[in-house]
Amino acid sequence: MTFDPDAYDALAARHVSMRRVLNLFAPYRARIAGVMALMVLASALGLAGPFLLRAIIDTALPQQDLPLLAWLAGGMIAAALASAGIGALQVVLSTRIGQEILHDLRVRLYAHLQTLSLRFFTDTRTGEVQSRIAGDIAGLQALVTDTANELGRSLSAVAMTAVAIVILDWRLALFVLVVVPLTVLISARVARLREALTYRQQARAADMSAAVEETLSAPGIILSRTMGRGPWLTQRFARLSRDLSRVEVGAHTAGEWQWSLIGFALATLPALTLLAGGLLMQSANPASIGTLVAMIALQEQLLWPFEQLLEIGRETRKTRALFARVFEYLDKPVEITERADPVTIPRSEMRGEVQLDHVRFAYAEGDGPAVEDVSLTVAAGSHVAIVGPTGSGKTTLGYLLARLFDVDGGAISFDGVDLRDLSFETLSQMLGVVSQEPYLLHASVADNLRFARPDATEAELIAAARVAQIHDHIAALPAGYDTLVGEGGFRFSGGEKQRLALARTILRDPPILLLDEATSALDTKTERAMSDALGAMSEGRTTITIAHRLSTVREADLIVVMQRGRVVESGTHAALEAQGGVYAGLLAGT
C-alpha cells in the first residue's frame, strides 16, 4: 500500500491538536505543577556551581584564602548533592504520573471500542486493533514519562542558565545565543520528516501484527498445515518484516546529516567563546579569567539541556503520528448508543414478547438491503423458527434482534418497548444468544460459565450444564469445572463448545432465547437430547430459532421462511409442507 504524506497530514490535522494532547495531562495538573517546581529548584541549585567557581578563581585562589576556598568548595558539593536528590525525586513522581496517563488512555480507548457496532469489527483486522491499543500507546510512553520529564528539566535548566549567562556577561551571552534560531530551524525540519515516516512505520507494524494474529492462532495453523502453505506464509511474513525494517531505518535516520550540523555548531561554541573572550580582553572593559571559565562551565550546563530540547522537539513530532492513530479510533462514531433516559424493565415484569414492524437493514450505504420490510409478532412464551436458504437474511435478523446493528427502517420491540429505548442492561437481561460460532474465553470452564453471571454458585453452574447436556463430560475431565478450555475453546469439540455456550446463556436465565444454528455442530443423538432439554427449558420462555437444518424446527409454534431478505411464507410445519412452496423445497433438499 502506497504511503501518501499529504493524506497523513490531513489525518493528523483532523484528529490531533496540542489542546487535545494537553487535555490528557489536565487531571494531573496539580501534581505536574509540583514536579515542575522541583525541576526549577534543581536547576537553580545547579546554577550555583559556576558562580562559586568564579569566586574561587577570581578571589579565593589569588588571595590564598583557604577558609573561603573551603566554604566555596563545600557549597559546590552541597548544591550538586541537593540537585541530584531533587532530580531523582522528580523522576519518580513524573514517571508515576506518566504511567497513570497511559493507563487512562488505554482504558478510554478500550471502553470506546466496546461501544462500536459489529460493523467496525467486521471491517477491521484484530491485529490492527491490538496494535493501536498496545503498540501505539506503548510508543507514547517515552513522551508522557521520559520526554515530559526531560522537557521540564531541560526547559527550566535552559531558561535559568540563559539568565545566568546574561548576568555573567551580556556581551558573551549574545554571542552564545546567536546559534539558537539556526539549530531550532534545522531540528523542526528533521522532526517533520520523521513524523510522517513514524506513521508509516506503525502502519507496517500493524500489518505484521495482523499477520501473526491470523496465522499463528490454532485455526491459522490448521489451515496452513492442511493446505501446505507454511513456506508461503513464512515468505509473506519475511516480506512484511523487511518492509518494516526499511521504514524503521528511515524513521530513525532521516535528516541525520542535517541533525549533525546542530551537534557541530554546539560543539564549537566553547572554542569560539574563548576567542571572543580574548578579543574582549583588548577592550576597555575586559572579561576576567574567572568570568571566561564560568561562562564555559555555564555553556556546558546550557548545551546539554538545549540539545535535549531539540531532541525532544524532534521526538515529540514523531509521537504526533502515534496520537493520530489512537485518536483516529477514539473519534470513530458510536453507532449503537443508549438514550440519556433509557427504559428499564424489572426482571419480574419481563414477558418476552417480540415484535418486528416493517424492519429494513443494509450493511453499507448503497448496498441492497439484507433485510427488507420484515414484520413479525412473536407471542410471549412461544417458539418461532426462522428458516431459509443461505443468504436469505436469517443471521442478519438475529444481529438486529441482539442490537448488534440498529435497523435502518421500521422498529424492533421487546414487550412493547423499542430496542433503541431500552437500557443496555435490560436488553442483555431480556435476550440470551447462542450463535453458530460460539466463543469461549481462554479460561476455565467455570470462568466461562460465570461470564454470564459472576455471582453464580457451583450448584447453579452444574444445573445449567445439565440442561445443556454437558455436565457429564465436564465432570469426567481431570480438573472438572476448573479445566482450561484453551485458546478459542480448542480443547473441546464443536458440539461441546456449543453446549458450553448454551449452558452459559441458560445460566443468565433470559425470558427470550435466540438460537442461531445453536445445534448445528451436534450429532443426532446429542441434538435430540438437547432438543428435549431445550423444550423443557422453553416452557414460559420465548424461543427464536434461526436454523438451516429443518429437523430442529418441526415442532415450532410458527415457522417463518425468508428469501432474499423478505418473509415469503409462515405457518406450522404441516401447513408449509402442504403448500408446496419454498419451505417444501427446502425440505426436499435435506
From TrEMBL:
It is found in: Cell membrane. Its main location: membrane. Keywords: ATP-binding, Cell membrane, Membrane, Nucleotide-binding, Transmembrane, Transmembrane helix, Transport. GO terms for molecular function: ABC-type oligopeptide transporter activity; ATP binding; ATP hydrolysis activity. SUPFAM superfamilies: ABC transporter transmembrane region (SSF90123), P-loop containing nucleoside triphosphate hydrolases (SSF52540). The keyword Transmembrane applies. It is a multi-pass membrane protein. Residues 33-318 form the ABC transmembrane type-1 domain. The lineage of its organism: Bacteria, Pseudomonadati, Pseudomonadota, Alphaproteobacteria, Rhodobacterales. The chain crosses the membrane at residues 32-57, 69-93, 151-168, 174-191, 261-281. Residues 354-589 form the ABC transporter domain. Coiled coil: none annotated. InterPro entries: AAA+_ATPase, ABC1_TM_dom, ABC1_TM_sf, ABC_transporter-like_ATP-bd, ABC_transporter-like_CS, P-loop_NTPase, Type_1_exporter. One of its GO terms (cellular component) is plasma membrane. This is ATP-binding cassette subfamily B protein. The keyword Zinc does not apply.
